[in-house]
Each structure stands twice: as C-alpha cells, then as structure tokens.
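Entry 12.
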Amino acid sequence: MAKNTQGEQINQTKELSPIAQLFQLGRDQSYVTFADILRFFPTPEYNLEQLDRIFAALLCAGIPYGEDADHLCCPFSDPKDTDNWY
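Predicted 3D structure (tokens):
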C-alpha cells in the first residue's frame, strides 16, 4: 500500500474504478466469481453490453470467472483447446 508524505497509508482501492478493482481482485485470487462481479456492478441487467465487455476483458486478461472456485471458465492459450472450457 502506498504512503503519503506524512508516512500514512493511502487506501488505493478507493481511488480505483470498479473494473480496476475487479481486475485487482482477479489477479490477487487468480479468478473472480459472479458474486465478485455483482459486488462491483450490482445491476448488470441495466447494461448488458458492459457486462459482455467485462467478461471479454477477463478472458483476454486470462482471469477465469464462474460461480465459485470449483466452477470456473478457464481461459486457454490455444483457441482450439476447448476440452478445458467450463
């Protein structure tokens, strides 16, 4: 965590956009759940295009997502390798 000039810690997560916070969470825990996505975007039904972009960005970043840690869509390096897909 960063510190300001007086040496106090700065809470950087409040400075990050919701999508940046979601990606940080995804990097920290190596995946995101649908509940995580809903925490940052609580009304996805009002902007389905944004939700599609979030899923696409997670896939491009190699961050799996799903219901829980045991049920993830797993981005794969070879597009022909669909055996590892959810």
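Annotation: The first strand starts at residue 32 and ends at 33. Residues 17-73 form one domain.
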